[in-house]
TrEMBL record, chain A:
This is Carbohydrate ABC transporter membrane protein 1 (CUT1 family). One of its GO terms (cellular component) is plasma membrane. GO terms for biological process: transmembrane transport. It is a multi-pass membrane protein. PANTHER family: BLL4140 PROTEIN, DIACETYLCHITOBIOSE UPTAKE SYSTEM PERMEASE PROTEIN DASB. The chain crosses the membrane at residues 12-35, 76-100, 112-135, 159-183, 210-229, 267-289. The keyword Transport applies. Belongs to the binding-protein-dependent transport system permease family.
From TrEMBL, chain B:
It comes from the Bacteria. Gene3D superfamilies: MetI-like (1.10.3720.10). GO terms for biological process: transmembrane transport. This is Carbohydrate ABC transporter membrane protein 2 (CUT1 family). Its main location: membrane.
Length: 299, 280
């Protein structure tokens, strides 16, 4: 607002005209569906209700109590948390390590690394998942050939399947972390590091006491961003485990909601899972906003 | 740093780059291999008889060209509309004084965090109703995908463009006003060209978002095979136990190339654009 008073013509009517198209789209396709999502989650909304064969029954929080009493929901929830945590840690460790590595090599090597990372980053999730599936294919995959384990199915067992999907997710999401952190490290003035060295600080000490605090806000941004992305992975799980694995043992919340709604026609229950997921992510968002404010960011 | 240390670091870098790039190499290689080499139990990391057979199969038998076009239409329409609307909104939010501005900015930030995947159920029913009135924007039509991706890409686009609009000095607008330019003229003839770098970065993200979408295409395009987009079409190839891996990899290659080209062309602007958005 500091600059605002210098604009003599700022007025509500012009602003409204400029904002209307965006507001219409966002209101109609974001705000209204969010309201509808909550509404549907309060009803018993199945195939009969959709086709008009049965009356709508208001359940109140019935879907929620049903969900919370459902053992599969809790399994899926913990699986989602574990899977997302694995992906986040993997992405951050790989991305940070490579960002540091990139600062220690000459330009040609760095360009090579960045080009490869850009390729992984740009690959559409469906294509990426399919490539990884083929590399790990039981009969024709290169990995089984190299390991001499032809015929071994990586997607059959619950944990190898999760591991494979997590590896694919890390492959396509570490570049964002690497590029961001590399830019952050590069932005730190060389004098700061030199001053620390003059004061007799070791490399480890410099990294921990000087560089890490300076990079903290950026690390926070990439961490939260990764948490949000990895918590709602859909495509990779759906494609690589054929819709959630045998008997649904590779389900995560997002795929679970989709299966409940569109495979089992339990739209009410699907919406309920959607609400729970949104609530969990909003909690993370609030943490994000507070952390941003702490690091001096302003609206 | 001492030389041996740097050499080791560079060696590691080269190995890592090779590992990261390998899946993409394998994709292109498999797409170019003749059919018998693809399903050989002894896969080799090269081929002596490259052929475009797999691409031909993907384009003719599975009419991949049609889906490619569908994806392109959706992504391009989303990019153009989202840029125009986001630019206008960002200008208003940055340059105009009005009540509720701060509230709107906070809403914008919150809306970015909503997992749009959770909205499949209400949006599915909305598109069904919309389709009764305007078939083009209903289920089984590309218009429904344009609508949702437009909405999904806009919050971030507005957020990002805000930084670029704010970077244009207010003095410039004052000068334009003194010269007798209307606000409308200033916005389109001065501001719009000046925020072009931001528009590039924003359009890439919107394009990729729409191009990569799998969930909404799967939910909305249920029975109209001719209106499918690439991610779904690729799934059609995948059949239990008798996958045509050559065609699948050819399809994946066709799907990846536009995004890759886009990325490489604008990588510098993308990084500076993202940095601008973070700095806000």
């Amino acid at each position: 607002m500091a600059r605002g008073h210098r604009l003599p013509r700022g007025d509500g009517r012009a602003a409204l005209a400029y904002l209307t198209p965006a507001l219409l789209v966002l209101g109609g396709l974001m705000a209204y569906p969010i309201y509808q999502l909550v509404l549907i989650s309060l009803f018993d909304y199945g195939q009969e209700q959709v086709s008009g064969g049965a009356p709508l029954v208001f359940l109140g929080l019935g879907n929620y109590t049903e969900l919370l009493a459902d053992k599969q929901f809790w399994t899926v929830l913990w699986q989602t948390v574990g899977f997302a945590a694995t992906c986040v840690v993997g992405t951050l460790v790989v991305g940070a390590a490579l960002a540091v590595l990139a600062t220690r090599v000459r330009t040609w090597a760095r360009t090579l690394l960045f080009l490869a990372a850009l390729g992984a980053w740009a690959t559409p999730a469906v294509a990426g998942s399919t490539i990884w599936l083929f590399l790990f294919d039981a009969n024709f995959g290169l990995v089984n050939e190299v390991l001499g384990s032809t015929g071994f199915s990586w997607t059959f067992d619950r944990w190898t399947a999760f591991g494979l999907v997590a590896a694919q997710v890390v492959w396509c999401s570490f570049p964002f972390v690497m590029v961001t952190l590399y830019a952050g490290i590069k932005a730190i003035p060389q004098e700061v590091v030199e001053a620390a060295a003059l004061d007799g600080a070791s490399t480890v000490r410099t990294a921990r006491s000087v560089l890490l605090p300076l990079l903290r806000p950026l690390i926070l941004v990439v961490t939260i961003q990764s948490v949000i992305w990895d918590f709602k992975v859909f495509t990779q799980i759906y494609v690589m485990t054929s819709g959630g694995g045998i008997a649904g043992r590779n389900l995560v919340l997002n795929v679970y909601a989709y299966q409940q709604a569109f495979a089992a026609s339990e739209y009410g229950l699907g919406a309920t899972i959607g609400v729970v997921m949104t609530a969990l992510l909003l909690l993370i968002t609030i943490g994000y906003l507070r952390a941003l404010r702490k690091s001096g960011e302003e609206l | 740093m001492r030389r041996p240390g740097r050499l080791i670091a560079e060696l590691v870098t080269v190995v890592v780059a090779a590992v990261v790039a390998f899946p993409l190499y394998w994709m292109v290689l498999t797409a170019l291999k003749p059919a018998d080499e693809v399903i050989s139990a002894d896969p080799r990391p090269w081929t002596l008889a490259p052929t475009l057979d797999s691409f031909t199969r993907a384009l003719t038998v599975q009419s991949f060209g049609r889906y490619f076009l569908n994806s392109l239409v959706v992504a391009l329409v989303v990019v153009v509309l989202s840029l125009l609307m986001s630019f206008l909104a960002a200008t208003a939010l940055t340059r105009f004084r009005f009540r509720g501005r701060t509230t709107m900015l906070i809403m914008l930030l919150v809306v970015q965090m909503v997992p749009v995947e959770a909205l499949t159920v209400p949006l599915f029913f909305m598109m069904r109703s919309v389709g009764d009135a305007v078939p083009l924007f209903g289920l089984n039509h590309l218009g429904s995908l344009v609508l949702v991706h437009l909405a999904f890409s806009m919050p971030f686009a507005i957020w990002m463009l805000r930084g670029f609009v704010a970077a244009v000095p207010v003095e410039l607008e004052e000068a334009a006003t003194l010269d007798g330019a209307s606000r409308f003229r200033f916005v389109w003839q001065v501001l719009f060209p000046l925020v072009a770098p931001g528009l590039v970065a924003t359009s890439v993200l919107a394009f990729i978002h729409a191009w990569n979408d799998f969930l909404f295409a799967k939910t909305f395009i249920i029975s109209a095979a001719e209106n499918q987009t690439l991610p779904l079409a690729l799934q059609v190839f995948v059949k239990p136990d008798q996958n045509d891996w050559g065609a699948i990899m050819a399809g994946s290659t066709l799907m990846t190339i536009p995004v890759l080209v886009f990325f490489v062309l604008v990588q510098r602007r993308l990084v500076s654009g993202l940095a601008g958005a973070v700095k806000g």
